[in-house]
Design a protein that fits this description.
The complex is a heterotrimer of chains A (292), B (370) and C (345).
Chain A lengths: L15 H39 L2 H5 L13 H31 L4 H13 L4 H16 L4 H25 L3 H9 L4 H12 L1 H16 L3 H6 L17 H9 L4 H36 L1
Helix pairs in contact in A: 1-12, 3-6, 3-9, 3-11, 4-6, 5-6, 6-9, 7-8, 9-12, 11-12
Chain B lengths: L6 H20 L19 E5 L4 H11 L8 E4 L3 H9 L5 E4 L5 H6 L5 E16 L8 E2 L1 H9 L8 H6 L11 E5 L4 H13 L1 H6 L12 E3 L1 H10 L4 E6 H6 L3 E2 L1 E3 L5 E2 L3 H7 L25 E9 L1 E2 L2 H15 L16 H11 L3 E2 L2 E2 L8
Parallel strand pairs in B: 1-2, 1-3, 5-10, 6-7, 6-8, 13-14
Antiparallel strand pairs in B: 3-12, 4-8, 4-9, 4-12, 10-11, 14-15
Helix pairs in contact in B: 5-7, 12-13
Chain C lengths: L13 H48 L2 H4 L3 E2 L6 E2 L2 H31 L3 H16 L2 H27 L19 H26 L2 H9 L4 H30 L2 H6 L17 H8 L9 H33 L3 H15 L1
Antiparallel strand pairs in C: 1-2
Classes of the chains: A mainly alpha (292), B alpha/beta (370), C mainly alpha (345).
């Protein structure tokens, strides 16, 4: 039977009917595991197989070309995503960390409860809604689609993630550290910034990686705010391309060359988010071990 | 308050990324230009959006135009004719593109009534299909096609189809209709023709950029429809001629007003263009042309630009690009299955482009084009 | 560990130290407070912007907006009845839940309760990877792998077998190739599986070992321990996990838009093409004119969507917390929330 309870002697008489139910239950659990893993394996296999075929220097070095010309690539999409995500990080990290600090260090009152509740339900916000919101706010105000608008739309999604994750890692820092710092005469804010936050540093970094992994692959908010661009754009106030957006468009195109590029872009997205997620998970396990 | 540890690296990272992007864009980001850049106007980046029908053409033109003005990065995003009109109205793009002329309420919505609207090339909307075993073009008339889209004709071996195609082995297979899910000028042209051919269609569904389709699944853009048809046995739908050719789909010969079945081709499309004149009106159309041998469902695509520009570089690039497109660019149309404008009409279009001005001063093209 | 030196001005006069420290502390605390409240303000602003934009549609169409079946954005013939999208959203989400809940709870129980320790960590990592896959990659795969597979194999087979059963069979009538609601539901099920698993795991793990050991002391098999000892306590939390998954399914846009067929149908057959609220917003938003009611209609749909999704998330939170609190352990509740945050992201 189970290995958890060690010392107690199990009663010997378990009717065969009960034993069968237990067996069936085990089988059911194993079955569900297998069913859950099948799509993952199928998707990864297909994306890797078709995506690898599209990997070439062209993919990274060339910008988009009309399907009638050979040799097009996704260069402008990679750089566009970098710009959009870079902006999103620049906004959501300070905002998220400060919110997390408030919730963890000052967060026992009514206001904090409301903020915490808001952050948690915002984790479930449909990304298309974030896109529509920022379109109405930024695109209309600016008068055109832009990387900035897309970055702000991603911030709407990434801020709650950063806030909740930062709060949780800060809470894991032992109170003794805070008390020690205060006892030495440091003002509270220095204790937080110089002692607590650095101690939780890896955890905050993990949070950033998870937030970025989310933002990297988002198509819907970018669809409504960035318009897309066939060329590399360095102006954050102008339309820009992004990898998920380009993959979405190319996926529906009728040209085999573009569809191949779509698989290539999908593979790069997959690699990106998997690397970030796995690294974040490993870091968080290490961080939790440190805290214990 | 000190900027805490992680904000600084984050900001530096964002700045570094932007700098890298800037560095990358300074090196040539497209295939190397071998054209002469005589040190004149280098062009500037433009944004246009609209018709998916025009996408292959405008994207080819913008690549070619980079040879003349290397900084003229003309970003064209095919979001559908409806999108082109909306973004043009919202002034979020430098030019809009639509397959259907502006209608009166759309004109009324424009913030500025000083705009130009001119066709750039000719094309056609074809009936494309993917039926096993049918290798020669099917002959179909407007009534039959309307019945297919109405759902009155549901099988490929229906009498309406077989009667026009004796000797063709049509399977007992369902017709899987694919239509557009986005607002589209191609749809407007197609439904306009269906309305002209079938009173039942005209009263039940009507003609516009988006309609309530009685049957079928929706796909996004001309390429979505092409993709949908090619992946479905028995699939059928309407799409622009160039997409049908590229997607290697079967294309029907359609019955013209004079009774002949006409196949879409550069030649038959060109024949339909003779009726175009300025000014462009809401009901300007070249379907069911009376010229013999003209393809009945021919169409054109329009560009929308406000005449009163404020930015000199943008205005200059607009003028140069569209002047080039209406002259040298016309020779590139056939290689990707579009037909050029009739040459006299193209000259009239140039006069429209000449109306673009910056704060009252007309903008002339940078260099004389042959 | 950071080295802690003696703070500067340690021997400054007491009065100066207090004033400077008070100011620094107050400014810092105030800054974090303002930013945090900013988050709430952002949500309020979002709701207001959508409501303000969507107001026109409601004013012109009223209740008909929600129960009407015709969606026609064409100028001069505008009518907006969102029932096809509400229907499609409900149906696809329901299919997703029916498929994902049993499997998700099963995987969660496996991870927590099963004895085979070697497989737990790798398996947990793999389920997390499912969560990390971007929606557009799911959509791309769905479009080119799942749709043809379902069209050519699964749906005809189901139609020929289950489709013959009276009453229920009507759901499984094969309608022809192309995307459809069933395929969309399956893709959604795969996408929400990780959330259901992660939250269920945390909920189940909070149920204290006391309960389990007591059940085992009474001679219960593992199955009985779980069914009678763990699950009843965990049930509110599992329902919460389901609601979180449902919320995610409702809001998923891109993958669904690529495989659902994008037609405004309301039909009994699951194999018919359909449309969902997020998909229509994504497809029509950039071409929706501000002059007519089209854009307003889409913004109102966005408002509906976000209210439902946030409502689900709120109820889910209550339920998940309730299980933890039933165990008398608020720290555990917070830890579970932490883990589920990391799992969700």
């Amino acid at each position: 039977m189970s290995a958890t309870v060690s010392t107690f002697e199990m009663p010997r008489t378990i009717s065969s009917q009960r034993r069968t139910k237990d067996r069936l239950f085990s089988i059911a659990l194993w079955t569900s595991v297998v069913i859950a893993l099948i799509p993952l394996l199928l998707i990864v296999y297909r994306v890797v197989r078709l995506g690898v075929a599209a990997i070439s220097v062209n993919l990274f070095a060339h910008t988009a070309l009309p399907a009638s010309l050979p040799g097009g690539g996704l260069k402008q999409a990679f750089l566009g995503t970098a710009m959009i995500v870079g902006l999103a990080i620049a906004f959501s990290v300070p905002l998220g960390v400060l919110t997390g600090i408030y919730l963890a260090e000052y967060g026992s009152g009514r206001i904090a409860a409301v903020v915490r509740f808001t952050a948690e339900i915002l984790l479930s916000i449909p990304s298309i809604v974030a896109g529509a919101f920022i379109w109405a706010l930024v695109v209309v105000a600016l008068g055109n689609f832009s990387a900035l608008a897309a970055g702000i739309a991603l911030t709407v999604l990434m801020w709650p993630i950063m806030a909740r994750a930062t709060e949780e890692v800060l809470r894991l820092v032992p109170t003794e550290l805070r008390e020690g710092g205060l006892a030495l005469g440091y003002p509270r804010w220095r204790v937080i910034m110089r002692i607590v936050l650095p101690t939780a540093g890896a955890g905050v970094f993990t949070a950033i990686m998870l937030a970025v992994a989310r933002g990297l692959g988002e198509t819907a908010p970018v669809l409504l705010t960035a318009l897309g661009n066939d060329f590399v754009s360095t102006n954050p106030l102008k339309p820009t391309d992004a990898v998920p957006l380009r993959v979405y468009n190319y996926a529906q195109s009728a040209y085999p060359a573009w569809r191949a590029l779509a698989w290539g872009g999908a593979l790069m997205l997959l690699v990106g988010v998997l690397v970030l997620s796995v690294t974040a998970r490993m870091l968080s396990i290490r961080q939790q071990r440190r805290m214990r | 308050m000190k900027i805490h540890r992680f904000a600084r690296p984050a900001v530096i990272a964002a700045a570094a990324v932007t700098l890298v992007a800037a560095a990358c864009s300074n090196t040539s980001s497209t295939s190397s230009s071998s054209g002469s850049t005589s040190g004149g106007f280098q062009g500037t980046a433009l944004n246009g959006a609209g018709s998916t029908f025009a996408q292959p053409l405008y994207q080819l033109w913008s690549q070619s135009f980079l040879q003349k003005e290397p900084d003229a990065q003309i970003n064209y995003q095919p979001i559908g004719s409806g999108g082109g009109i909306e973004q043009f109205t919202a002034e979020t793009v430098d030019f809009g593109a639509t397959d259907v002329p502006l209608q009166s309420d759309e004109i009324g919505n424009l913030p500025n009534q000083n705009y130009i609207e001119f066709p750039t090339a000719l094309g056609a909307v074809v009936f494309a299909y993917n039926v096993q075993g049918v290798d020669t073009p099917l002959k179909l008339d407007g009534t039959t096609i309307s019945d297919i889209f109405l759902g009155n004709v549901t099988k490929w071996n229906d009498a309406e189809i077989t009667s026009q195609n004796p000797g063709v082995n049509l399977p007992d297979e369902s017709i899987q209709v694919v239509h557009r899910s986005d607002e589209s000028g191609t749809t407007a042209v197609w439904t306009g023709w269906l309305s002209a051919e079938s009173p039942e269609w005209a009263s039940k569904v009507g003609a516009d950029k988006a309609v309530q389709w009685p049957v079928g699944t929706g796909a996004s853009g001309n390429d979505g429809v092409a993709s949908g048809i090619s992946q479905t046995d028995g699939g059928a739908g309407y799409l622009s001629y160039d997409f049908a050719v590229t997607a290697d789909l079967g294309v029907a010969d359609i019955k013209a007003p004079d009774g002949d079945y006409v196949a879409p081709s550069i030649d038959s499309i060109s024949k339909a263009g003779g009726g175009l004149t300025f000014p462009i009106k809401s009901d300007t159309t070249i379907i069911n042309s009376s010229t013999k041998g003209a393809y009945p469902v021919a169409s054109t695509t329009y560009v929308l630009i406000y005449t009163d520009q404020t930015d000199q570089s943008i205005a200059q690039t607009l003028v140069d690009f569209w002047t080039w497109s209406l002259t040298d660019g016309q020779s590139q149309t056939e290689q990707i299955n579009y037909a050029p404008l009739p040459s006299d009409f193209a000259k009239d279009a140039l006069k429209e482009v000449a109306k673009i001005n910056v704060n009252g001063t007309p903008v002339t093209p940078t260099s004389p084009t042959g | 560990m950071a080295t802690i030196g003696v703070p500067p001005h340690a021997d400054a006069p007491a009065a100066l130290l207090t004033r400077r420290r008070r100011f620094g502390d107050r400014a810092f605390r105030w800054t974090t407070l303002v930013v945090s409240v900013g988050l709430v303000v952002m949500l309020a602003l979002l709701l207001w912007v959508l409501a303000d934009g969507g107001w026109r549609a409601i004013r012109e169409f009223g209740l008909h907006f929600v129960i009407g079946r015709d969606w026609n954005p064409v100028a001069g013939r505008e009518t907006y009845g969102a029932l096809p999208f509400i229907f499609g959203t409900a149906v696809t989400s329901l299919i997703a839940m029916v498929l994902a809940m049993p499997i998700g709870v099963g995987v969660a129980l496996f991870l927590n309760e099963s004895g085979a320790g070697w497989i737990k960590n790798p398996l947990a990592v793999l389920v997390d990877l499912l969560a990390a896959i971007p929606s557009v990659v799911y959509g791309l795969w769905g479009l080119f792998v799942l749709v043809p597979l379902f069209d050519h194999t699964v749906e005809p087979w189901l139609s020929a077998s289950v489709g013959k059963v009276p009453v229920v069979g009507g759901l499984f009538r094969y309608q022809g190739p192309g995307g459809d609601m069933f395929t969309a539901g399956v893709i959604l099920a795969i996408m929400i599986l990780p959330i259901v698993t992660a939250v269920t795991r945390e909920v189940v793990s909070v149920v204290s070992t006391d309960t389990r050991e007591a059940a085992m002391a009474l001679g219960a098999t593992r199955y009985e321990t779980i069914r009678l000892g763990v699950l009843p306590t965990a049930r509110p939390g599992i329902v919460g996990a389901g609601m979180l998954g449902l919320g995610r399914a409702l809001g998923e846009t891109i993958a669904v838009a690529l495989v659902i067929g994008n037609s405004t149908n309301i039909s009994a057959s699951l194999f018919k093409s359909g449309y969902t609220i997020p998909a229509v917003i994504a497809n029509e938003f950039r071409e929706a004119t501000s002059a007519g009611v089209h854009r307003s209609a889409l913004l109102f749909l966005a408002l509906l969507l976000v209210l439902i999704a946030l409502g689900m998330a709120s109820v889910s939170r209550l339920l998940v917390r309730r299980t933890a609190r039933m165990m008398g352990d608020d720290v555990a509740a917070q830890e579970e929330a932490a883990a589920s945050t990391l799992g969700l992201a």
